[in-house]
Amino acid sequence: MAFDFYMPDIGEGVVEGEIVSWKVKEGDKVKLDQALVEVMTDKATVELPSPRAGTVKKLYFKEGDIAPVGKILVTIEEEGAAASAGNGKHGEAPKPAAHAPVHAPVSAAPAARSAGGIEVVDATSTRERVLATPATRRLARQLGVEIGRVPATGKHGRVTTDDVKNFKDAPSSSSSPQRAQHAPVSIGKGGPNLEPGGLSPTGGVEERIPLRGIRKKIAESMSRAVHTAAHFTYVEEVDMTELVLVRERAKARAAERGVKLNYLPFIVKACVSGLKKWPQLNASLDESTQEIVRKKYYHIGIAAQGPQGLAVSVVRDADKRSIFDLSREIDRLGEAVRGGTATRDELTGSTFTISSLGKLGGVLATPIINFPEVAIVGVHKIEEKPAVRNGQIVARHLMNLSISVDHRLADGWDGAMFLQDVKTLLEDPTTMFMEMV
Q: Per residue, what are the HEC states of 71-139?
């Protein structure tokens, strides 16, 4: 008996998911709860397990495709005749009264459930028929664009953030009564106007890599941040000489506790202290109510490079942790990111972000805000350089800190004063320890 497995509603507000990778192929035997497919939504990346044991009869989406909630993902030919197939046509969810429950992955966000798992409903019956991500819909609301009138260029007729922006900027956008209908375009292996072997019209060799998965989410997130937050950047030079000495003295004690001590925990502590004085930087904007939400908790995001791209792991309640505890947690989260095992909870919920490349930190950068946060600090490399102290040229360990701030919610004075306070604490570690709660 054939069983149709539908794309479940795996999070509040989720209307679709990108197929990151199939764990099975047509003709494979699958066991109950065996991983079928990895799906990425705006909320998280999850693996969907098989709700039946049997043979994979048909896969309805390719890797990189966008699967709307309520559409068939895969048909499984069951072993035995214990369950019946869905009553709807292929590619459509059955009516709510006749649907079969499907199992949700343990890590999926809560959703409407029946006794057997997540309840599958007809996605088109309760949601706007325009296919677009929540982020795209939010942008349309911010720009005052009626999303149903935006010509779609994405796969399966999906409206993208670029579509919304282009529609807003187009001189004749207000007179377009309907969404444009696009004729299909045939693109070969090498892309438009390329030979199958990948040669461009000028004869150069090109490689085309699909923009999907984590890289695609990073692109969407960065684009949203740049086009929503009004960025400004302020830079300050910090004399880290005293902190270098403190760290050297503390390294042995840290090693006794199994901690590899670097400078980042000290910077986290200094930032938390600064955020308590300048709470407008530990905030976000609730655009639905037009309220500035100042957070009374300090979940510090640490931007780090993972195997699939940039990820921001979250050190929760950083104000309540010791330097050694911060160091352990930062290392643990870094290992999870590099190993690709970080959970959704470990990658979401930050209130303020620190971006550091360690020894590769460079001289200066203008980091992009981790939207919807208000600010992000960029940490750059520490170098021994000549400096003038008391009229004498001496060698000092100097480092630049940069801060990018959303000018909609905070002024230049706020960002500059915050960074000055952080600078003071880092240059005089004794003062930093006195500030700790």
A: CEEEEEEECCCCCCCCCCCCCCCCCHHHCCCECCCCCCCCCCEECCEECCCCHHHHCCCCCECHHHHHH
